[in-house]
Amino acid sequence: MAKINEDLQRERDKCTFKIAELTTLIDGGRDRTDARREREKVLLSRTKDLHGVPEEYLSHKEKYESAIKNSVILFGIVRQMQEEGKTSVTDYRDVITSLLASAQTRDGSPMGVHYIMFMPAILNQGTEEQQAQWMPRAWNSSIIGTYAQTELGHGTFIRGLETTATYDPSTKEFVLNTPTLTSYKWWPGGLGHTVNYCIVVAQLYSKGQCHGIHSFILQVRDEETHAPLPGIKVGDIGAKLGLNSVDNGFLGLDNVRIPRNHMLMKHAQVLEDGTYVKSKNSKLNYGAMVFVRVVIVFDMVNYLSKASTIAVRYSAVRRQCHMKEGAPETQILDYLTQQHKVFISIATTHALRVTANKLWDTFNAVTEELGGGNLNRLPELHALACCLKAVSTADTANCVERCRLACGGHGYMQSSNLPLTYGLVTAACTYEGENTVLLLQTARFLVKTWQNVDTAKLTPTVEYLKITRSKGFIDKWQNSIECIIKGFQIVAMGKISSSVDHMQQRISNGMALEDAWNMTSVQLVSAAEAHCRVIIMSTFYEEINKAMATVSPELRKVLQKLVELYCVYWALEKVGDLLQYAPIAQSDIRDMKSWYEDILVELRPNAVALVDAFDIRDGILHSTLGAYDGRVYERLMEEALKSPLNGEPVNQSFHKYLKPFMQGKL
Amino acid sequence: MAKINEDLQRERDKCTFKIAELTTLIDGGRDRTDARREREKVLLSRTKDLHGVPEEYLSHKEKYESAIKNSVILFGIVRQMQEEGKTSVTDYRDVITSLLASAQTRDGSPMGVHYIMFMPAILNQGTEEQQAQWMPRAWNSSIIGTYAQTELGHGTFIRGLETTATYDPSTKEFVLNTPTLTSYKWWPGGLGHTVNYCIVVAQLYSKGQCHGIHSFILQVRDEETHAPLPGIKVGDIGAKLGLNSVDNGFLGLDNVRIPRNHMLMKHAQVLEDGTYVKSKNSKLNYGAMVFVRVVIVFDMVNYLSKASTIAVRYSAVRRQCHMKEGAPETQILDYLTQQHKVFISIATTHALRVTANKLWDTFNAVTEELGGGNLNRLPELHALACCLKAVSTADTANCVERCRLACGGHGYMQSSNLPLTYGLVTAACTYEGENTVLLLQTARFLVKTWQNVDTAKLTPTVEYLKITRSKGFIDKWQNSIECIIKGFQIVAMGKISSSVDHMQQRISNGMALEDAWNMTSVQLVSAAEAHCRVIIMSTFYEEINKAMATVSPELRKVLQKLVELYCVYWALEKVGDLLQYAPIAQSDIRDMKSWYEDILVELRPNAVALVDAFDIRDGILHSTLGAYDGRVYERLMEEALKSPLNGEPVNQSFHKYLKPFMQGKL
Ligand SMILES: Cc1cc2nc3c(=O)[nH]c(=O)nc-3n(C[C@H](O)[C@H](O)[C@H](O)COP(=O)(O)OP(=O)(O)OC[C@H]3O[C@@H](n4cnc5c(N)ncnc54)[C@H](O)[C@@H]3O)c2cc1C
Ligand SMILES: Cc1cc2nc3c(=O)[nH]c(=O)nc-3n(C[C@H](O)[C@H](O)[C@H](O)COP(=O)(O)OP(=O)(O)OC[C@H]3O[C@@H](n4cnc5c(N)ncnc54)[C@H](O)[C@@H]3O)c2cc1C
Q: Does residue B543 have an active-site annotation?
């Protein structure tokens, strides 16, 4: 191994806690750390030297081809796990949503949706027979599928989908059609050239009646030749901001027939004669949506741990300007503005991880209750997953860009791996529910809750709405974490309450409910975000407090600071809200700014250790700026030399265009 | 021309002002509109059908080659202008920083820096003789150059550059060297494979003494063969987040000799015997920096006008969900949250344009004064250009992403042209002075000004610092534009003042000045931004008020609303600052929210007309979502079909990898 950059080494030498202890805490146990490292070692050894020219230099088509090559290696591991009997949802999550996956197919995998949506959809919506029919082949990748819901004309508004599935009792088949241009399926990952099956979401017609949207399993390509089946138009939707190694696809259907039992019938059914049997409960599908959204929050944690590792290590290596005349150049990590830019990403990574774990546990608990027929907590869970998905993706996107910009010019290089990371993260702000739309869904739940706050028994995540209203909830402001969390609870309550008032007033002035809702929607979105901030902050605080009991005093101090950083950062960001709703004074704010500055300075000596604890090996981090040894400039140059433009001293365009132009002949 | 989408047509029919009148106002006169349109027509006709596969599908190398092909066409126009005698700075700006340029080389031109920095540097730093020697060849592109300042190890800290130029009196030459890896030049646009000359910034050594950094003209490639000259290592730095058709390059120098008169000697000189003659004033270079930064603000205006055109037109065409059950699906432009996302971009485009024009005029005035030896206004102008560059690029980057996200999934398609636009805009947050560093420079000027506020005569842009301190500056808060601007002046003053206090207190507690500055730097950045917001807001308000006299009553109303939108939007964004420093009450804020909602609703009917007035033709806008006729879905499909992945029904990777994998043979 090459020599470690001296500045980085010094950072590691002076850190005040044991890095391995934090890594264990993050992984959730020593054995889990070991298992993860083992998986990483295996995979990375298999793929060593697989790559030729780095992907960023390839054409769109070549990127796809390279991703297929890499994906089959990655998913070979999933198959192997299955053969070893490791088929629990957690095992599965460990591979699919791990950093490992993001290393193997850096700009996304064409087969990702197979694991994250195709299989879960069959598990959730298929009958036991259907599961028995499809799952074994899906698990071992004999077939590869995607989830085709969105159309050119409709994404958010699922009820507006135009694809039709019309039951024909004479042949016991459904006839699938995309009758208009806007009804073409558009976006499903892997649909373009990879998958041979998909779940199609379509309007079900039987006996001349429309029964709304339902899911169907459709074969799109021949298993042997991979040629599109008759009546099927399928292809790549084209280049995107990111995820360019995923062939998001379009799909047009012209009288394509599938057998009756290809409709997923766990909840609703069409009988042989065409009789439609309704689902018992329309909310049952919430479960699947929640699952995917939790997975997304974990994804965000992964990406953000990468981005912060890169930015922090680079900031320790990069020296620029003299803070003091005559002194050596300053490590940019010593500038308070730089700490302000990057430390929040470390804290956010932990805050989101802790919250995602909690959400995951709640999800599993509720799923068990569902088995027993208890649907009570579904609406709360759904509202929670909506806002957490929205806020975690938005925050992560902001943090990643902040990290990238904090790396100055070199952050703009693809070889930093920050641009690609942003492309992946910002996509999550849109897919699986556009963020504004999701926040409005949470707002709807909050408004309903608020309107019954005096009479209903409140579920855990909204209990604070009642408590904050009691007199003296905050007697006197104190600059403490507890008080800040209380302050945010008051803010969330205040925003919900004043949105409702605002809406009521518009209604009293004669406005229709829907218009009043719309006119209040900017405020409602802000209320839902405030609610979500309460959840993240308080969960982070509580869970870290629980962990305190089991960790060393050294680590305890650092964790405490991370919680402080998160809370004080957001208190200052949202100081306008606190001033409006909580009893905070101008002098408190002045002191809070100093507090914030002090936290940054206190975290400074441990910054590199904190990101080292994320334990992301170079093969996964894939960054010239973030590698463990800090050989930043050497790596930048090594990567540059891989640019195919440097394969020849003079590019052909000189002779063809440039020279004639310069000589005035063009 | 194809049929116009009905929704768009309806928007145009119902607008309340004359679109052409606003276009004229934006261009600065009817004749300028005509001239611009003529230039666009000529260029677009020359390039019709030039493009084969859309650029986003090409490899890194092909992107570069395509950009060279397109650039020579674009810059043929510059040459033609020169031949026609149109060589004023304004003529020049019209082409180089126009939307036109961005249409021709969509992801940046390898020759951009030739026009924006190479030639201006010679004009600014070259003697008359040197100008006579180099400018004619540069103007007509017989030689193409770039500006090579940044090195692998140093960007912000120019004094830290490591490249050396050592004078050898025996041959009357300079010997250039990059003695370390970190001293390699890194980043200059076009340096990789395009240019044959460049300005190199290096530490000047003569008679064994270092005299700091100076600029030299260096030939890097042979004019006939384009081969790198002896001692020169040059190449492409590799793939980037954006600007991938520009070959940003690296440059290593090994004892490369250039004649003495290749040092640009307008300000400082090295005589034949090696005697160094110092520049009269170190601030003289500010002029060039200000020029480039003003050009950047104009760039931002262009990009933002594009992004808002795309987002607004698409929002008029896109229908999603029913606001009211039974009604037709809602144009998403009718959702208040959507208006909140996109209208601010329209207002910001105008605010920045008006401010950039003002800055441009000031720049020209000060340049004239410079001719007369008057340097008084340079520091102010420099501070102004720093913060305007920083705030305009940051705001534009945020607005462009906001516009993109507002287009939902389709905004993520390259064919929307929003991703590329973001890549260009966010680069400007870093180049020509990293934004944080620039804001700290403005802060330094503000702190100095503040420390002499009672005694010095204040220059125009900071006069408010004195006035705001007078008692009763705001007697009672009113929700009016005038009061909001005053409120922001108080905020800026308050932030500067409390930063200074904060710093003083740390110093009194025994901290060194530099450390106290650093500990206050987060607050200082925020103060500089607040100052800049005052400048933009008040300039926008004043200049639009001046324009009021000359425009029709219909247009007047709309312009008034745009100013309101800008001010109220920022008042609500910065409500925490207003609450801390200005006498605003909670009820004022409540009313202000309603005011904001009302402004959005009032602007709604004119939204499409407002972006139509930017008058960006389809060939320049280059967007499936934003085209004039609103054929969004047709265009998305047409573009998708151009993806080379769709050239064959089954991709080769199926046979190579996917099939063996699915059949368990891999
Ligand atoms: C990278 C990527 C991968 C994807 N993968 C898949 C996949 O595998 N399978 C699949 O089926 N789909 C997929 N999608 C599609 C994705 O699910 C949709 O893009 C997403 O649901 C957003 O819907 P939309 O595009 O219709 O946005 P729109 O709804 O058109 O959003 C546009 C704007 O309208 C606003 N808006 C819309 N409705 C309302 C409302 N009621 N109130 C207020 N504002 C509103 C939004 O806030 C937004 O600002 C993918 C998308 C992307 C970008
Ligand atoms: C697309 C692009 C094109 C370019 N084109 C050219 C070109 O044609 N010619 C050329 O010569 N150069 C060019 N550059 C280089 C560009 O000018 C530099 O990248 C820019 O000046 C920023 O410097 P840096 O990269 O050293 O950032 P750094 O200074 O390393 O910034 C990294 C971080 O350190 C912080 N920091 C640095 N100094 C301080 C300080 N004193 N106080 C507080 N914080 C500090 C910054 O705020 C930032 O967060 C280009 C860059 C890009 C991205």
A: no
Q: Which residue has the tokens 């020049």?
A: B92
Nearest to B205 by CA among B216, B190, B194, B189: B216
For the segment A357-398, what is each residue's pLDDT rounded down to a tens digit?
999 999 888 888 877 878 888 899 999 999 999 999 999 999
Given B56, B75, B235, which is nearest A640 (Cβ)?
A: B235
Return the ∠ at Cα A375 (arms to A374 and A381), rounded to 5°. 130
**Is the torsion defined by CA of A408, B363, B496, B518 positive or negative?**
positive
Torsion of CA A92, A93, A99, A101, to 10 degrees: 40
Which atom in ligand 2 lies closest to the alpha carbon of residue A341? 49
Angle of helix B586-603 relative to helix A481-508, nearest 10 degrees? 50
Instruction: Enumerate domains of chain A plus CATH numbers.
Output: 21-109 (no CATH), 144-280 (2.40.110.10), 286-433+624-640 (1.20.140.10), 477-604 (1.20.140.10)
Interface predicted TM-score (ipTM) of this complex, two decimals: 0.97
Find, among A457, A633, A531, the residue nearest to B152 by Cα: A633
* Cα–Cα dist A77/A663, whole Å: 59
Helix H or strand E encompassing B501: helix B481-508
- Among residues B151, B162, B432, B529, the one annotated as catalytic is B432
Please state the residue numbers annotated as binding site of B.
150, 189
Are residues B334 and A519 in contact, defined by beta-carbon separation less than 8 angstroms?
A: no
pTM attached to this predicted model: 0.98
Tell me the pLDDT tens digit for each residue of B420-445. 999 999 999 999 999 999 999 999 99
Distance of CA A374 to the CA centre of its chain: 29
Q: Rounded to the nearest 5°, which phi and psi values hold at B164?
A: -115, 150
Q: How far is CA B6 from CA A424, B316, B333, B608, in A?
A: 35, 10, 15, 13
Taking a C-beta distance cutoff of 8 angstroms, is the pair B270, B260 a contact?
A: yes
Task: State the Cα–Cα distance between residues B239 and A54, nearest whole angstrom.
Answer: 10
Give the three-state DSSP class for A621.
helix
The torsion angles phi and psi of A151, rounded to 5 degrees, stand at -120, 170
Pairing label, strands A232-236, A185-186:
unpaired
Closest chain A CA to residue B394? A405
Question: Are A509 and A595 a contacting pair, CB within 8 Å?
Answer: no
